[in-house]
Amino acid sequence: MTIRVILVDDHPVVRAGLRSVIDAPDHIEVIGEAGSGEEALAAVDELTPDVVLCDLRLGAGIDGIEVTKRLNARPTKPAVLILTTFDNDAEIVAALNAGAAGYLLKDINPEDISTAIEKASRGETYLPPEISSKVVAAMRNPGPKLTRRERDVVKLLATGASNAQIAQELFVTEATVKSHLVNVFTKLGVDSRSRAIRVAEDRGLV
Fold this sequence. Notes:
The chain is an alpha/beta fold. The protein folds into two domains: 3-140, 3-Layer(aba) Sandwich (Rossmann fold); 148-203, Winged helix-like DNA-binding domain superfamily/Winged helix DNA-binding domain (Arc Repressor Mutant, subunit A, Orthogonal Bundle), CATH 1.10.10.10. 52% of the residues lie in helices and 13% in strands. It has helices at 12-22, 37-47, 64-72, 89-97, 110-121, 129-140, 148-158, 163-170, 174-188, 193-202; strands spanning 3-8, 28-34, 51-54, 79-84, 102-105. A five-stranded parallel beta sheet has the order 2-1-3-4-5, with helices on both faces. Helix 2 runs parallel beside helix 3 (64-72), helix 7 crosses helix 9 (174-188) and helix 7 (148-158) crosses helix 10. The chain starts with a strand and ends with a helix. This is DNA-binding response regulator, NarL/FixJ family, contains REC and HTH domains. InterPro entries: CheY-like_superfamily, NreC/VraR/RcsB-like_REC, Sig_transdc_resp-reg_C-effctor, Sig_transdc_resp-reg_receiver, Tscrpt_reg_LuxR_C, WalR-like. Residues 4-121 form the Response regulatory domain. It comes from Brevibacterium sandarakinum.
């Protein structure tokens, strides 16, 4: 039985490289590609793959974690494997909590990608040893919690509020808001407002 796969990455060169690797085994076939999260959802509707191999960060629009979450909410759903260069503990846990069947780094051996696809198609989870150890460590040590005011800032961030609007809402200065954001980014291991919102929500911190 042929395993049908869709590739999701915002870089065409990366998709081309992955296609050459994944199409090598006779029992795995790349049936489609997508350059964004939105395109991925449409491609799944059209092509009904068994497995979606998805990058974590997809430029503008929804990211790989959101793609995973939306696909897993469907009655009929493909398995989703995250393939990325980022090994941040919080993002690994967030991806798995969203329903990912595996989390792979892009320096993985081609044979291991095939193994991950095979396992995912059977409803199994595939995590390389280095990722498994990070997951175990993250479960044992969930990391620092956000203060009440930091949670307030993240909640307002999620509404699309600017620093000035957050400052006005919380009756503090913009400098104070920026200080809270620096603390939030550091605690969550993220580098953007959107990632802070996503990780905080996925970890149940807000």
